[in-house]
Amino acid sequence: MPSGISSDFVGICWDETNVDGALAETCKHVETVLRDVVGSKLITPYAGYSCRRSKDDRPFIETFFRNLSSKGFQRFTNTTGSKPSDKKGRDPDKVAITSQFQMEYAEELLDVLIANYNATPHSGLGHRSPLEYLQFICSRKSTSLRRADEKTIQGILVYRKKCRVNGSLKEGRKPFVNFDGAKYTNETLQQRFDLINNYIWVINHLEDDARVAQASTLSGQTLGVLRASPPWHRLPHSIKVRRAINAALCERKFFMASKLDAVEAFMEYAESQPHSKLPVHPAYLELRRILRQQADQNIGKSTLELALKSEAQKNSEHQHNLLDETKLEATNKPSLPPRRMAVSD
């Protein structure tokens, strides 16, 4: 990726986004994000002047997507091909279920295909790779680059919801909110009995950790960071994963014992399923990714360096000990008598 070869390409914006006639690209949310965050204008065939009549109108884009299909997705055993006749009597749905194909496999393949395409020389670019051509263009003094604001980018991943404050002063129930299937509260909110039956904003800033959320009144007064109550308070998870776990609980696919973390119970259920019976649940794969990422962050680079340094130090000390033992053995050995010349009789 461009951001992988130089930090100068991190957050680079573009001026226009050309799309085809798919309805997904006419979504107002996509158009709003492109305009407000990227500063790009969304151009669709409905604009009147961007109708695609031939593949030659955009040869690089067509070549790129042709590579994605012919060198990647159409080589899968569960591919539907480019036309109905490509199935050749196969049942792609059955193959996908039998092979337990997951969406994460397609995402990993897509990353590799794009990275390889960007690093492969192209005759249309003067036998440069797309990454090399990008560096060549940006090296010109006349080229000016726009970068998106980091705070604005983070706002794309923010999930905000208006939640009703529950509780009762008479019954002694401290105020709390229900946010996407979990109960949230903190010390500040527990003292705000005046907010009961009113609505507040609950915002989740961390995409991979829904255990915490920020709260504020509708007028903008901050209420601090809310924390999820049991059984959602132990292991990190996303809103998407929580919805999948709650759906599985509603369908009675597994039962959760009291005082047990919901994420932990779901993982035990997913790992206890025989592989020949059911494919791996997508939410389980997402959980494994989140937990692995959290573990890497907890370890930290400095800890790894200390561990490697300690190991190297142990090996060095071991080598010194062996050398000292060798010298000691040589010192303690009895001295041999002086050599005598052979005398012939």
Structural overview:
- The structure is a single chain.
- The chain is of the alpha+beta class and 345 residues long.
- It has three domains: 2-152, no CATH class; 157-228, SH3 type barrels, CATH 2.30.30; 235-310, no CATH class.
- Helix content is 42%, strand content 13%.
- The strands form two sheets. It has a six-stranded antiparallel β-barrel with strand order 3-4-5-8-7-6.
- Strand 4 and strand 5 form a beta hairpin.
In terms of per-residue confidence, which ranges show pLDDT below 50 for 5 or more consecutive residues?
335-345
Q: Proportion of β residues?
A: 5-15%
User: Averaged pLDDT, please?
Assistant: 78
Q: What is the helix fraction of residues, given as a range?
A: 40-55%
Our measurement of the CA-to-CA distance between the termini, rounded to an integer number of angstroms, reads 88 Å
Q: Helix count?
A: 11
Please outline the major beta sheet: 6 strands, antiparallel, barrel
| Principal-axis shape | globular
| Total individual domains | 3
The neighbouring-strand order within the major sheet is 3-4-5-8-7-6
Overall number of strands: 8
How do the helices and strands follow one another from N- to C-terminus?
A: HEHEHHHHHEEEHEEEHHH
Please state the CA-atom Rg, rounded to the nearest Å.
Answer: 31 Å
Describe the structure concisely for a colleague.
The chain is of the alpha+beta class and 345 residues long.
Using brief descriptors, characterize the structure shown:
345 residues, alpha+beta, SH3 type barrels, 3 domains, 6-stranded antiparallel β-barrel, two-stranded parallel sheet, globular, disordered C terminus
